[in-house]
């Protein structure tokens, strides 16, 4: 449940916001640009996310940040639905800044409570919460915007962010020993720098900064649905199916990551995602293609995200004074390709239409997955998973 508020906020940004802005008459390229702007803090949040390792317990940070994120989400959707685009983007950028450290707190809690041999499943369940919450929040907003006043859609979506964040307060987390702020910050800095000097961490950052599993096209599906002749009802169906298949994919990815070498699972999941978007690019532009294609994309995206989480959890290691901050480094890295691929997909749509957008998304996954698989074979990197194959 801890990952749900983080995922729900971004479901609002990636599913509901493009739909609302499209109804206001904005172009897909403009929507992609605004979406990238809202998600830009995901690149830089490592600058403020270390706050979750300071003073308050991590569960308290989850609750506090979830409340603020929910308020920003409500205002953002309300303004987007009423045509105040600048106010909508401002509200959602603030929410983006605030919601990011929730994932850092999650990483710290996993480091403290979950052994490495189970961290694949922990990653799968975490992503199931994040992605399932995201699709649920975004799909609910789209459905309610058609059947109810925009204020109702905004408040309902914000509730999906708010309520799960409060459940974090029930986690039996022990309080860290009290030390001075400066000594604590110095210890955190030494801890993070020690991690960054490890070869496998630098290799992982190359993985996470690549387009593999970025899933940027999912941010634009509601905006390009009309090109597949998909009605708002079909968009809702797609969101509903995605709400089921994305967590299923995450759980599958989590199990695979506890069974096989996590370094190999990650790029292979990217290949699966490339296949789904590639088929959608060449298939007929019909509602059936939209429904089946987005379903396949959702399933493979869940596998990709769980593979990332499992590998990141493994590299974070055990609990330290900066375990939340350690996880932040990986989360910040993996969010970079979401932003640049969103921009690339938008540009490809502007030049080549929806087929070009999906082809760009697919080829980016395939090229980098192939390159990194060759690099792995050369370096012979292994994962610390019992019984790996």
Describe it.
- The protein has 389 residues and is an all-alpha fold.
- It has one domain (3-168, 182-379): MFS general substrate transporter like domains (Growth Hormone, Chain: A, Up-down Bundle).
- The protein is built from 14 helices and no strands.
- It has helices at 3-23, 28-39, 41-44, 58-81, 85-113, 119-147, 150-167, 181-196, 199-209, 221-224, 232-259, 262-282, 287-316, 323-379.
- Helix 4 (58-81) packs antiparallel against helix 7 (150-167) and helix 5 crosses helix 14.
Query: What is the structural class?
Result: mainly alpha
Number of strands: 0
Annotated CATH homologous superfamily? MFS general substrate transporter like domains
Helix content: over 70%
CATH topology: Growth Hormone, Chain: A
- Point out poorly predicted stretches: none
Strand content: under 5%
Summarize the helix and strand pattern as letters. HHHHHHHHHHHHHH
CA gyration radius, whole angstroms: 20 Å
Named CATH architecture: Up-down Bundle
The biggest beta sheet is recorded as: none
Distance between the ends: 31 Å
- Globally, the shape reads globular
Total count of helical runs of at least 4 residues: 14
> Domains counted in the coordinates: how many?
1
Overall mean pLDDT score?
Answer: 82
Q: Write down the CATH class.
A: Mainly Alpha
């Amino acid at each position: 449940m801890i990952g749900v508020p983080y995922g729900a906020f971004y479901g609002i940004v990636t599913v509901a916001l493009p739909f609302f802005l499209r109804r206001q008459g904005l172009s897909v390229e403009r929507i992609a640009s605004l979406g990238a702007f809202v998600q830009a803090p995901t690149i830089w949040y490592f600058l403020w996310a270390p706050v979750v390792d300071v003073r308050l317990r991590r569960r308290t940070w989850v609750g506090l940040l979830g409340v603020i994120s929910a308020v920003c989400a409500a205002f953002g959707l309300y303004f987007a639905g009423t045509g105040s685009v600048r106010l909508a983007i401002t509200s959602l950028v603030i929410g983006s800044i605030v919601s990011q450290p929730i994932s850092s707190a999650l990483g710290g809690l996993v480091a403290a409570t979950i052994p490495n041999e189970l961290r694949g499943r922990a990653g799968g369940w975490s992503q199931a919460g994040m992605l399932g919450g995201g699709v649920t929040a975004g799909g609910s907003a789209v459905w309610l915007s058609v059947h109810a006043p925009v204020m109702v859609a905004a408040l309902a979506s914000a509730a999906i962010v708010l309520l799960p964040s409060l459940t974090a307060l029930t986690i039996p987390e022990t309080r860290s020993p009290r030390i001075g702020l400066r000594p604590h910050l110095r210890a955190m800095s030494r801890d993070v720098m020690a991690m960054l000097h490890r070869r496998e961490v630098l290799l992982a950052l190359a993985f996470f900064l690549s387009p593999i599993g970025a899933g940027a096209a999912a941010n634009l599906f509601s905006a390009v649905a009309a090109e597949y002749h998909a009605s708002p009802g079909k968009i809702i169906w797609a969101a509903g199916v995605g709400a089921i298949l994305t967590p299923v994919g995450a759980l599958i990815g989590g199990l695979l990551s506890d069974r096989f070498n996590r370094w190999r699972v990650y790029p292979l999941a990217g290949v699966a995602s490339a296949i789904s978007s590639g088929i959608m690019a060449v298939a007929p532009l019909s509602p059936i293609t939209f429904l089946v294609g987005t379903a396949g994309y959702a399933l493979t995206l869940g596998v990709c995200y769980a593979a990332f989480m499992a590998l990141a959890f493994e590299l974070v290691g055990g609990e330290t004074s900066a375990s939340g901050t350690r996880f932040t480094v990986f989360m910040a890295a993996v969010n970079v390709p979401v932003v640049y691929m969103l921009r690339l997909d938008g540009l490809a749509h502007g030049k080549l239409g929806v087929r070009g957008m999906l082809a760009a998304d697919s080829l980016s996954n395939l090229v980098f997955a192939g390159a990194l698989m060759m690099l792995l074979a050369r370096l012979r990197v292994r994962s610390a998973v019992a019984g790996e194959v």
